[in-house]
Amino acid sequence: MTLMKTLKTFFVKTLAVSLLLTAVLSAQNSAVLSASNLEPSKPAAYKFEVDFDAQVTPSSRFEIAFPSAFNVSQAMMAVSEKLDGNLTVTVDKNVVTLRRSAGRNTVAAGETIDFTIASIINPVQPDQEWEFTFILTDGQTTVEKKVSTKMTLF
After folding, report:
1. Is residue 127 one of the residues assigned to a domain?
2. Tens digit of pLDDT for each residue in 60-75?
3. Which of 14, 20, 47, 103 has CB atoms 3.0–4.6 Å from 116's, for a disulfide?
4. How many domains does the chain have?
5. Range of the domain at 127
């Protein structure tokens, strides 16, 4: 009887640790993506909420690599509720780069940062899971995060 109870306790604890580890790993690889509309081939504002495993400083730069099905060539402005100052947008193929200017605040590692980027053209079939790559660069430090997610409306 004692062996069965010990095995049962071991199994329950192992399962609990496994579920906790899965939740932690999922949280590290998660991001929220929402769009102002999901009409195929139409322009929309895209809002990303993502956290990085590194501190964000006033000199930080962000790159968001969109899947090739998105047309980012018309991206023209970006805003953030979390970051002060201005965000300037540049586009190179499917990568949108955001640079901060006149920002003063620092955001701790692990805190969620939001970006809303205007004038992204939706893919022809927006209702599927998409993989985005987020790159935070601050001086010589670069942190990359790949996230697969579906779009929702905001």
Report:
1. yes
2. 999 999 999 999 999 9
3. 47
4. 1
5. 33-153
